[in-house]
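Lab notebook, design round three. We kept the backbone fixed and only want residue identities now. Task for the bench partner: fill in a sequence for the structure below.
Input structure tokens:
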């Protein structure tokens, strides 16, 4: 899969969600098969997901990190 297509899929899924109140997402395309997406999603109830995913086409193990917290900044995972 070309990274640009993957990014468009993410944008569409996030845009269609009725659970997300606010979002900040940054897409960086290093080449046609390598990129990174990072951001912050604010959900109903004040829950926040911060995330980063490094994508390289053909790699079986993508690199990622995420934190999910409540409105009081208590991290759940």
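Proposed sequence:
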């Amino acid at each position: 899969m070309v990274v640009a297509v993957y990014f468009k899929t993410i944008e569409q899924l996030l845009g269609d969600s009725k659970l997300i109140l606010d979002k900040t997402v940054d897409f960086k395309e290093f080449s046609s098969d390598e990129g990174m997406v990072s951001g912050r999603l604010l959900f109903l109830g004040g829950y926040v997901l911060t995330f980063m995913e490094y994508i390289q086409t053909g790699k079986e193990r993508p690199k990622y990190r995420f934190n999910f917290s409540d409105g009081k900044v208590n991290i759940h995972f």
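Keep this in mind before ordering anything: The chain has one domain: 3-69.
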